[in-house]
Amino acid sequence: MSLELRHLRYFMAVAEELNFGRAARRLHMTQPPLSQQIMQLEEQIGAPLFVRGRPLQLTDAGNELLIQAKRLLGHADSVVQSVKQAARGERGKLTLAFIAGALPHLFPAIIKLYRSRFPQVDLDLKELVTPLQHEALRTGEIDVGLMRPLGLESDFETRMVLRERMIVALPAGHRHASQAVIGLNDLIGEPVVAFDAKEAGYFDLITRRIFGQVQSEPRVVQTARQLYTVLATVAAGVGIALVAASAKDLAFPGVIFREIEQPEANFSELILAWRKEATQPVLSNFIDTALEVAALTPQTIL
Predict the structure, then answer these.
(1) Rounded distance, CA 280 to CA 155, Å?
(2) Which pLDDT tens digit goes with each residue over 191-243?
(3) Are 178 and 206 in contact (CB under 8 A)?
(4) Could you give the CA distance from residue 146 to residue 294 in angstroms, rounded to a whole number?
(5) Which domains, and CATH codes, for the chain?
(6) pTM to 2 decimals?
(7) Residue 126 dihedral angles phi and psi, to the nearest 5°
């Protein structure tokens, strides 16, 4: 035996009003069809639900059905509401990957605003370098990534959300520390702490491009995968490093930051990337939120 939700709604209206006429008006129907529906429900259950009289009264079976009907209809309404929220991107799950370079500026603002707007979305955060984000997007492990524009595939949709000038990180006490701006020629021959070409290839390419502007190659003495490791190695006096301007916000002990020549030609970018075929409402809402934050953030970090 299966009960239809509409029958339970009819019953609950009569049980709460204890009057067929008032219940019919509440349901926007006439009384005879309502009475017929209640009789069919009683036949289906095999027990009377009301004691017909003045006033109308519930039987023990009717009282029990009223308790269960409220519970079932409440759950049904909750299910419908949850489905509608999912369709609007207000409920569900979203997996976001990010690089460490996104942390100083955009990342906190985006996450804070998105969580405030969509608190019922389960937001899973993963720190991954750009090449690993590409693979995670392809396999569906993540839905969207904050990454560098390196080796992008044609089936990815992207938006640039941040552009930063490149600067040089020097050990405290370095011979060029007194200069406000470091000439590119001054970099020639300096020991360089570079980002790992496999896991942080974007900055490795930028470093080589900057040195290429003075027909030189960086004298790499050490590589590292993460910005914190690069700066720690610089602080130890191992060498200099070319980093994005937001690295200054870290105020790393033992490291000083200086501008380099031709800043307009030397910059790094941060992008948002997702699969072109992705249509999840939660993803659309996140992209809109991220682009809104990006629009309010200076596009060039000086």
Answers:
(1) 16
(2) 999 998 887 788 889 999 999 999 999 999 999 988 889 999 999 999 999 99
(3) no
(4) 12
(5) 5-87 (1.10.10.10), 92-160+271-301 (3.40.190.10), 161-268 (3.40.190.10)
(6) 0.70
(7) -130, 130
